[in-house]
Design a protein that fits this description.
16 helices; 2 domains; 484 residues
């Protein structure tokens, strides 16, 4: 954990016993309307909790037959997940689509290392490392030996449940007739399925799932991190139809916040509106979008920040280290802001290490965290936003400070897009596809880019990412208004 990075964890226990769970978007307190996003210790109206996440202990396994099963723990977990998902859709499906719910016809498990395993959707399952829904015969199948175990190991049991909830979302689409396999090249179909899975994650978080529990801090953070890790990394690949990690997390959060009805409103125009002016493709195949962190690149980013936020007294840049011996703020390696001197200090080598692309071993299906240059630059941006907040007279030592920092970092991120109408001067730095995914991954893991001047962040990665996306799709005024 990075020096100076702390959670407002004491707020979790306090608010868990006193806060009101909201059924809508606002709560009236002393006559003042308050958005659910104003409370840093709530997640879309639910209290931030730090209790257990995973399979409930002592609960009988679901009585669902599984073709090809080895009778092991993974297949039992998946069967329990499908049972709970079907219980959820038995209520939600008729209410939403005004027709009877039809459970999937068969569950199929396989080991992709076995060339004589069961067939799925008419094909051999040998070497198929995946989980899926087959619309031909209304079945769901999964790789019990490699994919599902790795998801559960790296991100927790409920993240594996999320994978099955996504696939069941496709079953819901098919039977409801709301999106076929060719809809918008697949992106609408996949975004809706992520959204439906998000709505089921809330069902678990509300303690309504018989077999699973989910806390809304670390547990939900890991579920969202799994969506990041399994996002489509290369926007130039026509086979990638799930959307970027940024888009996958967004769709999941829509479902979690607004329920399954909101998922049916995701269509091509809605997705295009969310993409706004953000870059979707690399300029050419040789461009990996990575800009190594150096003194020169840091100075170039600073130049861009100054253009984005026209401050009468912009902060000074000190590249001699993050420890500025500041009188009114702690050191937050590898980048610190000192209000007393209006200076941002950077430990260049440490920031460069944070911005170095990671390596996924050949025996791993995906990384736990997406790393790259923007892991570093978004942190630099967030410290710059503290100077903006200071100039406005905002408190720099609160949870709202942390969320404003994330939100305003999103404003910077959007402004750096080469497609943004407000073009920066020649010589400025530009956003690349994948940068938003790197930012989201960092916000879900250590969250330092969503922290106050002393490096304290809120416990909910969901809230940190939501604040960042609010800035990406909004404005300075949006951030100030929402996180007062």
């Amino acid at each position: 954990m990075l020096t100076g990075h702390r959670l407002w964890a004491e707020g979790v226990a306090l608010l868990a016993s006193t806060a009101v769970v909201l059924s809508g978007c606002t709560l009236s307190i002393d006559g003042e309307a308050t958005s659910i996003y104003n409370d840093p210790f709530q997640v879309a109206g639910l209290d931030v909790t730090s209790g257990p996440s995973g399979a409930r202990k002592g609960v009988p396994d679901a009585d669902l037959p599984v073709t090809g099963t080895d009778g092991g723990e993974i297949d039992r977990m998946v069967a329990n997940a499908v049972s709970d998902i079907e219980d959820y859709w038995r209520i939600e499906f008729p209410a939403l689509f005004h027709r009877d719910f039809e459970p999937v016809a068969e569950l199929i498990s396989w080991d992709p290392r076995n060339s004589h395993g069961p067939r799925f959707c008419g094909d051999s399952t040998a070497e198929i490392l995946n989980a899926g829904y087959c619309s031909i015969d209304h079945t769901i199948g999964w790789d019990r030996a490699l994919l599902v175990p790795e998801v559960a190991e790296k991100f927790g049991t409920v993240a594996a449940v999320f994978v099955l909830a996504h696939e069941y979302g496709h079953a819901v689409q098919t039977k409801a007739g709301i999106a076929d396999a060719n809809t918008s090249g697949g992106i609408v179909r996949e975004q809706q399925a992520d959204c439906f899975a998000g709505s089921f994650m809330r069902h678990i978080a509300e303690d309504k799932s018989p077999h699973f529990t989910l806390n809304t801090s670390d547990g939900l953070n890991k579920v969202l991190a799994s969506a990041v890790a399994i996002g489509d990394a290369d926007p130039n690949d026509p086979e990638n139809v799930h959307g970027s990690a940024f888009e996958r997390v967004t769709a999941t959060q829509i479902g979690f916040t607004d329920g399954p009805a909101s998922c049916t409103r995701i269509d091509e125009s809605e997705i295009e509106a969310r993409r706004a002016d953000l870059p979707q493709r690399f300029a050419d195949e040789s461009d990996d979008g990575e800009l190594p962190v150096t003194e020169e690149s840091i100075e170039a980013f600073f130049s861009s920040f100054r253009q984005i936020f026209d401050l009468s007294n912009p902060p000074e840049l000190d590249l001699n280290g993050a420890d500025l011996a500041c009188a009114d703020a702690d050191v937050t390696e590898p980048v610190s802001y000192c209000p007393a001197t209006n200076t941002i200090g950077v430990s260049v080598d440490d920031l460069a290490q944070r911005g170095t692309p990671g390596y996924t071993g050949r025996n791993e299906l995906f990384q736990t965290k997406l790393t790259g240059d923007y892991n570093a630059y978004v942190l630099l941006a967030s410290r710059y936003t503290l100077a903006l907040q200071s100039a406005r007279g905002d408190d720099l030592h609160s949870p709202q400070t942390a969320l404003r920092a994330a939100c305003l970092s999103g404003v910077i991120t959007a402004a750096l897009s080469p497609d943004n109408p407000s073009t920066l001067e020649a010589g400025s730095v530009w956003l690349s596809p994948g940068d938003l995914d790197e930012a989201v991954s960092g916000l879900l893991t250590d969250g330092l880019a969503a922290s106050d001047v002393n490096g304290r962040t809120v416990p909910s990665g969901f809230s940190r990412v939501d604040a960042f996306r609010t800035g990406v799709l909004g404005s300075e005024e949006t951030c100030e208004g929402r996180y007062r």
